[in-house]
Fold this protein.
Amino acid sequence: MRLSLGPLQYFWPKPRVLDFYRAATQWPLDIIYLGETVCSKRRELGTRDWIALAEQMAESGKQIVLSSLTLIESESELSGLNRLVQHGGFWVEANDLSAVQLCREQGLPFVAGPGLNVYNHQALALLVEDGLRRWVPGVEQGRQLVAELCGAYFSEAATLPEIEVIAWGRLPLAYSARCFTARALDIAKDQCKFRCIDYPEGMALTTREGQPFLRINGIQIQGEEITDLGPELGELRELGVDILRLYPQAEGMPEVVQRFDSARGTLLAPARAGGRNGYWHGEAGMRVGQTEPTVI
């Protein structure tokens, strides 16, 4: 079982991003995703910067994948996506069908990110024909749905694509053409002044009763809890999951990676350090009144 570092969901200053990935090359990871998946206005690193960083990090021997935007709204965003694909030196994580189309035209292998809607084995088979080599199920797709889809696909095909499951991090729940951060700060989206850079792990959103609920992250809404599938490691193995995705966080990421690296080398599942992912168990994503776990 391999470990991947998912794409950075937050907006950090360029020096912090470069320092983070410089350190990540020394962590026991197998795959690192690079690129902006949330908002094209976040230009601390542009498309050329991400490609240059990918070329540098490829020397570490880890697989580098370039991630695409989840919501593409303009010609300029499509042009940036095309530059990722035209480079041709790395797989692309396609979070929008326009990325699938460009990868198919280029003959480039791609990862179906959680932003794509893959709910049946026929859709998965079509994407495999287009060049899909790895599938990251959406956050709401639990073990039963994934098992049923993989079983139906395998009954008609010789081999499954690689399966990568989000095992750690705040879940990306929704995207919008509107900017939630700008709205919360009562400023226009086109005049946002990149204020989400002030929130390195998103802006906390609480209920009227003051209970933590969601995280606002630009045009993205995340779950509040950092979900943890470490205790479910045994059933992930039985399901045939190939890769565990760990989403970057501002603090404590080396310890998170080390925890999962140690766990994959043993049959003993680690104690829960983050929140329980209800979606994975076919339940509500968040349980009201759940005791907050200690997060490493």
